[in-house]
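Peptidase S26 domain-containing protein structure dump, as promised
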Amino acid sequence: MATLLRRALYWSLRFRDALEVSLASVQISTETAGTTSLFRALFQVWRGAPAQRKVFVETVLDEMSKPASFVATLTGNSMAPTLNAHVTSPFRPGERLVIRRLSRWTGSMDTVRGEVTFYRRPLAYRGDIVVVKDPEDGSRRFVRRVVALEGDELVRDEEETSQALLRLERGQYWVLRDNDNPIEEDIQLLRERALEAETASADPQANAQKADAPNVGSGAALPAERLPLAQQINLLRILRRDSRDFGPVTSDHIIGRVIYAIRNEVDHGRVRNSGLSMMRDDVILAVELQQLGMC
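structure tokens r here:
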């Protein structure tokens, strides 16, 4: 009975999310600007043109067919010690993450075209670990922690005064990596490994042993580790980027929230986000983990 109730709640949440996303795909006319309820917005869609209803229904069905989460492997140590605490190389893969899909239309913004807003809450909260697209390169993804959101002011603490640097506007988020160790430590590690590789390549006996027993598995050199040292350092700087480099991100850049980390078959567990987000993810996570065979 508990499992049945959980699945019923899971699909009701999925259906509500699909409705919210679908409302963004249609034009709703209104006589008065302001904030309206979800049900009123749905009523306006249903009494609208047939083509509008068709787009709306197709979008709902499309959203319901998509999984609520996806699994991705986190590379590097930018989020250590929270995630990938055991990974020392910035280019090595580590934990597999279960990521809940988030749509920008469930965030705090005008979710229907025109002047009507029917749904207003942040997409993420302070403390949430999210997957974001690099604002300067949409093909690149980062895992970062939300430390400030719309309405917050970022300040620079000085000896005598605190100077306001930036006030986050509606739908903006400030995201940072957890690992704040100086980048020089990783650069030094790259230099040491490059020197070791150069020394090994100059050793004929070591090369003969490598030919007899190819280096495969966790110790094998990855493509990024075969790059010239200067390119590795440049890639390292890119992989450590956060809002201090590219500024605030918007709801458009947030892909999902990290809700579960899988280190190995026996070591896995929930990722700590803000209390509100963890409560909202409870049912989604329980059902998704069953589908992944994790519980």
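Residues 29-35, 106-119, 208-219 have pLDDT under 50 and may be disordered.
lmk if u need the other ones
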